[in-house]
Design a protein that fits this description.
Distance between the termini: 27 Å
Strand order of the largest sheet: 1-3-2
Order of helices and strands: HHEHHEEHHH
Number of helices: 7
Strand content: 5-15%
Length: 186
């Protein structure tokens, strides 16, 4: 499953050309998907305690080509999940960097670490729900445990910033781990 997900992402990169979830352009045009009235609960309320979740969708599916459309929805969900984690990690690291004014870190390093963490999280993601509406729209929900992402943030923080009492308080302590997990799940 992981190989298929990874392969589909690579194929979309090659065919799509402009798929790059780490761009600083936040004004990308999104095609708004209208949820049907009989949508399942996980679609109308996608948050799940202890997990970071995202939804992917594709319209006008053909039942004969269901696997193809499922891959398209997975690519969409993967892109959304990666971008969500990237933005949250970037904000977390930038806030810490501003708080400490550590001259040893650079913005491009922070971005690279945020990219690494979001891609690593994607390798741990799993499909948890799939639904086809009566209008032939396919919805897929993927998630990754927030503890996995928090652990990645903590491990990479030791490499990115100078280890001191402030870093311990903000990233490495058990209390910080809970705070980071809560922030990621929002």
């Amino acid at each position: 499953m992981k190989k298929t997900l990874f392969l589909s992402i690579i194929i979309s990169l090659l065919l799509g050309g402009c798929f790059y979830p780490f761009s600083s352009n936040t004004t990308t045009s999104k095609k708004e998907v209208v949820l049907p009235a009989n949508s399942p609960d996980w679609l109308t309320n996608p948050e799940k305690k202890g997990y970071i979740t995202q939804i992917g969708a594709t319209t006008n599916i053909d039942k004969k080509e269901f696997n193809f459309h499922r891959q398209r929805a997975l690519i969409n969900a993967s892109h959304n999940l990666t971008k969500k984690i990237y933005i949250k990690v970037l904000k977390l690291y930038r806030d810490y960097d501003e708080e400490t004014s550590d001259a040893l870190t650079y913005d491009k390093d922070i971005k690279k670490f945020a990219e690494h963490i979001s891609l690593k999280a994607l390798t741990h993601s799993k499909v948890i729900n799939t639904w086809v509406s009566s209008d032939n729209e396919l919805f897929v929900q993927i998630s990754v445990a927030s503890d996995i992402v928090t652990e990645q943030i903590q491990n990479n923080s030791k490499l990115l910033f100078k280890v001191n009492q402030t870093l311990y308080k903000n990233f490495l302590s058990n209390r910080a781990k809970k705070d980071i997990s809560i922030m990621l799940e929002q």
